[in-house]
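call fold target=Serine aminopeptidase S33 domain-containing protein
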Amino acid sequence: MPLLHGASLRALLAGAAVAHLSSFPIVRASPCAPPQPLRLRAFASHSASEPPPPPPSSPSPSTSRVLASAAAACDCEEGAKPAICTADELHYAPVPGTEWRLALWRYRPPPEAPKRNHPLMLLSGVATNAVGFDLSPGASFARHMSMQGFDTWIVELRGAGLSTRGSELAAASTKSDMSSNSGVDKILTQKVNVVPPAKDMSTNEPQSSEVPVLTDTNVLETNTSEEPQLVTKLANALAQLSVTFSGYVRDSQLRNITDSFFDRVTELVPDASLTSSLEEVADKFLGLMELPQTSAIYDQISQLSQRLVKILGEGQQNVSPRLFGWQERLSATIEDLQKQLELIISYDWDFDHYLEEDVPAAIDYIKQQSVPKDGKLLAIGHSMGGILLYAMVSKCGFEGADPELAAIVTLASSVDYTTSNSSLKLFVPLADPAEMLRVPAVPLGTLLSTTYPISSRAPYILSLLRSQISAKDMMDPELLSKLILNNFCTVPAKVLLQLATSFRDGGLRNRAGTFFFKEHLGKIKVPVLALAGDEDLICPPEAVYETVKVIPQHLVTYKVFGKPEGPHYAHYDLVGGRKAVHEVYPCIIEFLSQHDDVSS
């Protein structure tokens, strides 16, 4: 199967991302609302009876997480969970300082099960939800662990499954319906203070400082009555782009989008003599993006929009035949820009957000509910879930902090893929991160659910897909279909870009590139069971061992599942393969049992 060129892959992903956003608009639903397909993420506003997350100014991160967990304990009510959630209970853990509420699927042990001292936390892979750990009553990793006496919790990280948040779009801009004139007219007829997103800012107060006003006689003399609706639409789109840019300072992603937008606008001018005038407008707008966003800046953006529309109109007067429908084409270009901005704001997080915010919030909530005697959890991570566990214990080892974990199990996970021939090398943007940033998010669930039906029949265009997930004859075809169609979500490009550093010398690092997680695994004090599959194309055994070898030998147990004559284990088979319940699960349970003693 020929591989896609980087540009072609980017175009495919960009088209899918826009189609995904267009087909599935952001909704604000109660956590108890009718369930959405798990591969799609629903947004939820906080109800009046629901306690809001603590403000970022809480006394300390640890204290605020505990208080937030306690305040949210009432979120779980009998009969409140959606039908799609097959756990005994569905809880929501607030992430302090954000609008996110992580969905936690809880499986309580039956009375006859062995008594355990620690709850068990399960973390799944990148762009996946809880379904992978609970595929069916007869193939449920989570249920099996609860039957062994472990109070089991599946954590759905932000953006996955049933995890929800309030709309960030409203906070990021004055967000109005681009087709609605009433809200737009109000903005255009008064001075406004535009409030940038709160990210990396110490205050949300409107910026009222005066800035130099750029004067341009061509702009000021523009006929403001010409194409007023189009001007209004353009002005608001450019204003939102400017506000978004000011909230994500120096982000090359937004500059790329700006350049692309003006390139498309230039294509609407058949008169080449006007190209320089359009470039002048674009340059002036780029200059405004660098300034604090105030009402004066918005006025200038409005004037530049009038000027741009006037140039496009003049361009049609000077050529024959005229380009009919240019207004509609410009309108469509503006709407595409709006969708890109919504996608950026909706999916603006990376691996460090999972590590520093989501996982600690989940741990505190689980501790609040399960109350382990020593304040620790057992944890199992599959794929990226295991990478998160490695990163967490590495960081705690470096800081000399307690990770609050009694023991961890990693399934098909590594922080360093440099020595392996992982198939992920074909998909991660290793050479040109800026190119990947042109695609804010990858709708993996939509792509897989769309392409899977043709992967198992002639001409076998995507026959590679099955072998990436499961080895031959290791999964029932119906369960494999359910996994592919329901387990995957949309993932931000920033998450993929950070994970891609695991393919570079030194392995995975933090977003700043200053902390290498592998370097500090030798300092950890937590027992580790690291499991690999013999036919895992995504995380081959050599990749798992590359991480294992730096962990103190007395703390780590390493095992590869699969035999030369079969059965074989691919990436998901350690969790849901036919033989896993008889071969893998007992190994995990024995290890966890050894480290469940609170005195150990």
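return ok
The chain has 21 helices and eleven strands. The mean pLDDT is 74.
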